[in-house]
């Protein structure tokens, strides 16, 4: 074991909305998704805006997102995300989350982003914000292009399993999330923290006396 670490969910924890859905207009402009798929992305954004989306709904949205990548090259996606970083993604970052990142770093604790979002997107955000690592959903690549099939879908218990595979003392580690669908992820560490929690997670946090944080400030 190499000591404690801190693990941050991405959407609505580190960022104030879904990263993949925020990128949907850029995907449309690049010809990656159709107008109909862009409208569907907007509908998913409305679902997440009302909060409390079920595990099945989150999983279905992520799977739909992978399907639209079919035939697209990883380097094309990486370029699109890089071009969108300053204009689309960085303005979504909560200032409070970066304050926590700094606090953990001062303690000598590595910081990770752990998300059901595609790994290439999560890794780009982690690199831009100076995180030590990233865990995300892995999409199969064959003959240089995405197949649209997940090799590792980072949902629910799979998030917790990935944490347990890392060489950190989880009982001393901290995890942050907004959603009750991340309960296994939060339970995997000794210091779970609810951030802008949905109704179900707020109730669980109250019952278990977990800290609850409310983020609202945009990072500079």
What can you tell me about this protein's structure?
By secondary structure, the protein is of the alpha/beta class. Helix content is 46%, strand content 18%. The protein is built from 10 helices and 7 strands. A 7-stranded mixed beta sheet has the order 4-3-2-1-5-6-7. Helix 5 (74-89) packs across helix 7 (119-129). The longest helix is centred in the middle third of the chain and has 16 residues, at 74-89. The chain is globular and about 45 Å long.
- The span between the termini is 35 Å
Main β sheet profile: 7 strands, mixed
Strand order of the largest sheet: 4-3-2-1-5-6-7
Unreliable stretches covering 5 or more consecutive residues: 41-51
Helix content: 40-55%
Structure class: alpha/beta
In short:
By secondary structure, the protein is α/β, with parallel strands linked by helices.
Write the layout of secondary structure elements.
Elements: E1 6-8, H1 19-22, H2 24-29, H3 35-49, H4 55-67, H5 74-89, H6 95-106, E2 111-118, H7 119-129, E3 133-142, E4 145-152, H8 157-165, E5 174-177, H9 183-187, E6 191-195, H10 199-208, E7 212-213
Parallel strand pairs: 1-2, 1-5, 2-3, 5-6, 6-7
Antiparallel strand pairs: 3-4
Helix pairs in contact: 5-7
């Amino acid at each position: 074991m190499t000591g404690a670490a801190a693990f941050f969910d991405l959407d609505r924890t580190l960022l104030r909305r879904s990263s993949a859905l925020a990128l949907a207009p850029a995907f449309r402009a690049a010809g990656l998704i159709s107008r109909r798929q862009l409208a569907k992305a907007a509908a998913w954004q409305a679902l997440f805006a009302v909060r409390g989306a079920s595990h099945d709904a989150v999983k279905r949205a992520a799977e739909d997102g992978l399907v639209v990548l079919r035939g697209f090259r990883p380097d094309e996606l990486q370029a699109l995300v890089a071009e969108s970083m300053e204009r689309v993604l960085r303005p979504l970052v909560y200032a409070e989350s970066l304050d926590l990142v700094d606090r953990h770093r001062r303690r000598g604790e590595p910081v990770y982003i752990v998300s059901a979002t595609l790994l290439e997107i999560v890794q780009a955000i982690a690199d831009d914000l100076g995180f030590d690592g990233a865990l995300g959903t892995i999409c199969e690549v064959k003959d240089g292009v995405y197949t649209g099939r997940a090799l590792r879908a980072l949902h629910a218990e799979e998030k917790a399993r990935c944490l347990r595979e890392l060489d950190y003392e989880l009982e001393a580690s901290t995890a942050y999330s907004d959603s009750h669908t991340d309960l296994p992820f939060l339970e995997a560490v000794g210091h779970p923290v609810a951030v802008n929690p949905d109704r179900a997670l707020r109730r669980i946090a109250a019952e278990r006396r977990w800290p609850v944080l409310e983020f609202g400030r945009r990072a500079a």
